[in-house]
Amino acid sequence: GSTGGKPSFDQWFRGSAAPFAGVEWAVNDRWTLKAEYSSDAYETEDGLREIFTRKSQFNFGTEYQYSDGLRLGAYYLYGSEIGVNLQYQLNPRKPLTPVKITPVAPLKVRPSRATSPAAWDTQWAASTNQQRSLRDQVKEVLDASGLSLVALTLDSAKAELRLRNDRYQAPAVAVGRGARALAWVLPASVETFRIVLVEEGLAQSAVTLRRSDLEALEFDPQAADALLAVAGIGEATPRLPGAMKNDDLYPDFAWSIGPYLSPSYFDPEEPVRLDGGVEVTASYRPAPGWTVAGGLKHRLFGSVGDKTTPSNSRLPTVRTEGPRYAREGETIIDNAYVSKQWKPGNDLYARVTAGYLERMFGGVSAELLWKPVNSNLALGVEANYVKQRDYDGALGFLDYSVATGHVSAYYAFGGGYHGQLDVGRYLAGDVGATVTLTREFTNGWKVGGFFTITDVSAEEFGEGSFDKGINLTIPVGWFLGEPDKRSVSTTIRPIQRDGGARLQVPGRLYEQVRSGHRNSLEDQWSRVWE
User: Fold this and answer.
1) Segment among 152-156, 309-313, 445-449 with least mean pLDDT
2) Which residues of 417-446 are buried (b: 16+ CB within 10 A; e: fewer)?
3) Can you give the pLDDT at residue 10?
4) Neighbour count for residue 68 (Cβ, 10 Å)
5) Which domains does the chain have, with CATH numbers?
6) Neighbouring residues of 298: CB distance < 8 A, sequence distance ≥ 6
7) Please, how many CA atoms are within 13 Å of residue 382, restricted to the half-sphere of its CB?
8) Position 125 pLDDT exceeds 90
9) Nearest to residue 519, comparing CAs of 381, 398, 357, 375?
10) Please, what is the average pLDDT of the chain?
């Protein structure tokens, strides 16, 4: 069809036919020889666009596997062209640098009450100073593991520890190290540990463990499975009244400076375009749940803005003016916003964000998410009112504004598969739905695909007929060789149009919340003893 993006059933097995064939011979483990016969006349490339001259129907090539990750190739094509290539091959199962986690000392097993009755004395529980001393000791042990104590409550028999995990991709590692920190520090009378993971001020879930189970199972051949069988994973209350808090966490200021790359794909005139430069980001957290953050970019080189063909969209140009944004903004405010998130209830999470939310839009965004700890299903609603930003990336706005929002359903199918359905109104004012399916692997890699169908026809949408693409997320630790929760993500679209365009909002809730719920904990529970 004229816009593409749809299966052309009427063209299958139609028209004239011609043979084509190829042969490949592995000379040895490293050298490969190839030969092809192609009956393609290359009428467009040879005649219409004059990209190359076809003199022969035969093509020849050779490749050399230099190492497990590097392959070199050379080719003679169409009787007129010579080509060379270099392939760098990555295997997600094999990190560039193996991730090494510093081991921790074994648990301190308590003496028996009969042989050491003094160790089981509970008078410490009535002393505020002794409790604070214990808090400080637990904090010190957690800091050494890259974890942060958020709050702690103690009595003679039980403790609740709320901690923030800024290092480990697997939440089970944080739970295990938090439990062992309590076991090393707390008096022998404390038997029940309740570990609560906290993400950006949101209490995710509570893992309840018995100290005696930790002591009995640490060296069991099936230690992880045995501990999971006796552990409890449940709701975490929004707040912990009377807790001893970590006063060092807030206020918190962080900043970074480094290079950035911004690619653009599949332009017919230049399939890959790339901008690059220097990026500065900063964040300030005055209190739990509050974030003031932003970023500046200065472009040093690039070709994304070289595309000068004006947008031919019939819809408001909410995305197709991307090259103009790249061309006219050399030093830009990438984003600058204030965000507040909190828990209205045990299973409810809320967020409000206002400011320059992304490169092209600024305004206000509000979100409410329902996600029980032990449920595969989550439901959310998001409402936004935004205005289009000026092309130069400074403080100004254009005339276009829109109310946009979605009702979303999320479902964990098991085996690492996660589905998402978003129904609502998009930036160009069109109404429809986006379907996303993602596969998450235990090493932190994620790959998924999505498509969006709205009330915009294929003709109105333009080339591609509807929005679709692939998402890829790679954990930073895979490159660095040390534990790191951060990741880098990219979305690859065959073409970016205005239909089905969704607002980019920093800090959407679902990924934050589910990372510490039952499914995520159980998927990597085998790492609880690391």
Assistant:
1) 309-313
2) ebebebebbbbbbbebbbebebebeebbbb
3) 83
4) 9
5) 17-88 (no CATH), 117-248 (3.30.300), 252-519 (2.40.160)
6) 277, 278, 279, 330, 331, 332
7) 27
8) yes
9) 375
10) 93
